[in-house]
Backbone:
């Protein structure tokens, strides 16, 4: 084992769903991380000793309002901290694989994101709506936004692309019935017992009375984001009702469903994906092959099924899954076992501790350009 490594993390805490998913494994598996010689200290504000560490991590949610008029001031702050510490990392915990906070990228040693585009060169290409799939619907279906966000290339200096790294996705948290409530409560009452392994796992081979489920909201401001969901709702209206339910009724429906359709939202990965794994249903998503994430839970034909972004094969894929119940259960079981291994299995703490230790002890020689 290497010597002790001190890690300081600046974060607003368990105040948002993404923030909870980012912090949950760090807190829950903290003892395992300590066993690898990594000591974590969390900061809720910028303190004098914040930079006195081997690795400094900034949670993007702490700076969520700092990239407008305050952009240059924020970049200067980052530059000052980069001079003080051995490694300075920025953790972008936003939803979309495509969207970067470009002001942070030049100012840090490494830019970690919960999910990244496999083809990093796409960050140097203009994308309508700053998402690969919104660009796709704009170019192929003519969908436009009333108030489009900037579509210019996010990275002009392609040398900066080498700073991009994958952190962990939002699955490493508790999405059982009371899980979101317990995680939110932890922000006010930090008791370790509130951050427990998710329960309520349903057997994939259990009898299921509902062929297909697709409960979803569609009230996104941008037409390019909501178009996929609106079109799926139209295509599936003969199969089911897609309006949202209470959380208890919704999770009950998932546990009774054979197939669950889980579209993109503000990002490719949604919390529904993990709820489906807990429910033991078969996950069906738009093609995820463009996304790199960890854990690798979204492997078409192994842990989930996928359909084309243009939705031309959606109904055919659903019929194929329903006509092959044995195969569907196999895929559902694979997805659930992979997910359980990372969040509730006997090795889950060690798996994460090893992954995080490798991140904070990464060799940064040559990174400071």
Residues:
């Amino acid at each position: 084992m290497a010597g002790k490594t001190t890690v300081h993390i600046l974060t607003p805490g368990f105040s948002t769903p993404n923030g909870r998913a980012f912090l949950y494994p760090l807190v829950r598996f903290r003892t395992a991380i300590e066993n690898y010689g990594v000591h974590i200290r969390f900061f809720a504000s910028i303190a004098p000793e914040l930079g006195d560490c081997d690795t400094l991590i900034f949670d993007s949610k702490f700076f969520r309002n700092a990239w407008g008029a305050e952009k240059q001031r924020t970049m200067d702050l980052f530059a000052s901290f980069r001079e003080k510490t051995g490694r300075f990392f920025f953790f972008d915990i936003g939803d979309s694989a495509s969207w970067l906070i470009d002001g942070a990228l030049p100012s840090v040693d490494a830019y970690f994101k919960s999910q990244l585009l496999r083809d990093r060169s796409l960050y140097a290409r203009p994308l309508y709506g700053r998402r690969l799939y919104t660009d796709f619907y704009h170019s192929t279906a003519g969908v436009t936004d009333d108030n489009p966000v900037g579509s210019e290339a996010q990275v002009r200096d392609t040398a900066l692309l080498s700073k991009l790294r994958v952190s962990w996705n939002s699955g490493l948290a508790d999405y059982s019935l009371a899980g979101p409530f317990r995680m939110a409560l932890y922000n006010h009452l930090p008791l370790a017992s509130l951050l427990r392994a998710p329960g309520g796992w349903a057997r994939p081979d259990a009898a299921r009375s509902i062929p297909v489920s697709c409960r979803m909201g569609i009230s996104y401001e941008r037409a390019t984001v909501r178009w996929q969901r609106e079109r799926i709702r139209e295509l599936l209206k003969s199969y089911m009702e897609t309006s949202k339910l209470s959380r208890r009724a919704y999770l009950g429906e998932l546990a009774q469903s054979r197939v669950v359709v889980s579209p993109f939202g503000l990002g490719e990965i949604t919390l529904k994906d993990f709820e489906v794994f807990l429910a033991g249903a078969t996950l069906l998503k738009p093609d995820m092959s463009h996304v790199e994430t960890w854990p690798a839970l979204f492997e078409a034909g192994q842990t989930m099924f996928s359909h084309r972004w243009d939705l031309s094969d959606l109904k055919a894929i659903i019929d194929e899954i329903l006509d092959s119940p044995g195969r569907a259960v196999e895929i559902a079981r694979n997805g659930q076992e992979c997910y359980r291994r990372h969040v509730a299995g006997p090795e889950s703490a060690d798996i994460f501790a090893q992954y995080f230790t490798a991140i904070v002890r990464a060799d940064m020689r040559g990174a400071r350009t």
